[in-house]
Amino acid sequence: MSERRRLEKLAYSRTAESGLVVRVRIVLDAARGYSNNTIAARQGVHLDTVRTWRGRYADHGLDGLQDRPRSGRPPRVTPVQRAEIKALACQLPAETGVPLSRWSSTELATEAIGRGITAAISASTIRRILAQDALKPWQYQSWVFIRDPHFAAKATRVLDLYQRIFDGVPLDENEYVISSDEKTSIQARCRCHPTLPPGTARMMRVNHEYGRGGSLAYLAAYDVHHAQVFGHCAAKTGIVPFMTLVEKVMTCEPYASAERVFWVVDNGSSHRGQAAADRLTARFPNAVLVHTPVHASWLNQVEIFFSIVQRKVVSPNDFTSLDQIEDRLTTFGRRYNQTARPFEWKFTQTDLENLLARIERHEQKEHSQQPTDRTHQTAASPAAA
Known about the structure:
Blueprint: H1 3-11, H2 18-31, H3 36-43, H4 47-60, H5 79-89, H6 105-114, H7 123-131, E1 144-145, H8 151-162, E2 165-166, E3 169-170, E4 175-191, E5 210-223, E6 228-234, H9 239-250, E7 260-265, H10 273-283, E8 287-291, H11 302-314, H12 322-339, H13 349-369, E9 379-380
Parallel strand pairs: 4-7, 7-8
Antiparallel strand pairs: 1-9, 2-3, 4-5, 5-6
Helix pairs in contact: 1-2, 2-3, 2-4, 3-4, 6-7
């Protein structure tokens, strides 16, 4: 492509910088024989601007139309000050005597000035400094101590069931896996003014004030491989509401005549321990209760369904009565079953092994950093599916 064609292409470009487009048009007007005064009038610039860019193009060609490198403002924060600010951000505020739970960029700027690290600094500068090392002290992530001594074995059993395997043997077609739990304290908040639907340039509006209409619990059983949900509402959780849900599932086909139906549950009081397993088997001999490890309800797939319920049914909470909540949940369950597909469960046995390896490394690190006579427990972060 000739240089003239490149200039003409830039002159009518919609993506090039506006300043570069004007400079290119100045050069093209000059090539057409226009005087400097005429070019200045045509392009709406000063006469000296025309002379400058014609001269640069004559000396350096197309490269001369680009902006020259600029040194910029000298840095006001030295490398040592940057390091001190980062070190401060990596400390808990309470450890430094500041009555805060977390640092914000504004609080860090104030603290840096108060400690004499720098005479003046803005919150935006603090954010840029911390961004260099991806530090975000205003955020936090929770974790939990694993207390279940049989964590690996229990988690493996649940993950195997999701792969249609139990005790190393593949499940038959007439065997099913049910994931069950309770969503507690769904409140009926009757807003003092009606909720306004969305409109032009306006989102849905929900009045902040409300009256309390009580609360209920929503119990759900989710067929892991067939994506069918069975729901039941109760005034509160407990053994009786849970067994009512079990009765609802196990008395209908194909579960009533199934060879085995595995119920994956967490360690809530409604279905905790061997007593719950015996109670379930006594009522339905083909039912097998399988517990997730303690503090590992994230392994229970029904929690994904509950998150859908929270987003699509409960929030924003605007119900006139508990009957309205129950009707909405029941209707949503039927609607969900019409188009539901099994969840794409991504936490595999390999992921579990990697998690346990991280736990072991953490344990070894803790042992090396703490006195040998101090007991501690192993820490792990719940992994999301």
